[in-house]
Amino acid sequence: MARAMSSATRNNMRNAVGAFLHLHLHLHPTPTPHFHYSSFHSHNPSFLSLSPQQQQQQLTTPHLCASFSSTPLRFFTTTFSDNLPGETSDEGASTDGWEEEDTADPKIGDGGDGGGVALQNVPWGERAHSIAKEVLTQFTEDLELYAFKTTPRGYVYVRLDKITNEYGCPSMEELERYNQEYKKRLDEVRALGEIPDDLGIEISSPGAERILKVPDDLSRFKDMPMRVCYTENIEADCPEEDGVFLLDSIDKDSEICVWKLANVKENRDPLKKGRPLNRKQKDWRLKLPFNMHRMVTLYLG
Fold it and tell me: Are the C-beta atoms of 26 and 13 separated by less than 8 Å?
């Protein structure tokens, strides 16, 4: 049987919406923040170590996360769970038994911030992926599989995207329910010997810095500032530029995006504190062919 665990500490969070209260249920730092806005106490060692009064205080304190952060749901099979209390890494540091996330630059289809599916030649990966898609049919049509990744060490990362949510953030209840249903189906298949016994699973929402596909994802986030890395020439050695823009329009026939400056601090004159963009800046437009976009992400200023 698998059991739930809290996630690691999410350090260096950047608040894209405003002030928020964050639930401290974490064990060690990991680099990628995710979306959601609820709490998760089940089987959390740090929570269970508190006095009854402290536990009650945490349970009754309202937790608001109006920014790009969350607590992914993780569960381990018995094999991993038995090793959790005293597991030690190769460097001698104590860990919680969870695999460190890949720190490579994200790219389209990497199974992480770039979305898509990355099985990494794991023999049981396709079966685990098919089950993840099968479980999703039990939910509303606006909930989609944003990214899926398996690793040779036996870890599965599932990221769910809620299309109707402004930031693509499923509710905590949806994440928990998916976690339960996915665990149930994996247990059934594991009993048949189709997948390993010792899998570690993380269920979360897309990362705050997920890569947006051009042009497919742009209209969905057209009212939000985006950081656009681009080049003005298709030559490989052409230097890249970047800026914070709002989408003005998309011409699919000519395959061109038209961008305008976003009214953010980065685009304002530092000598004129508090003043909005001037007329020239508001009228400025960047016409950029689809193939000259190098990377587009949501702006986290």
Answer: no
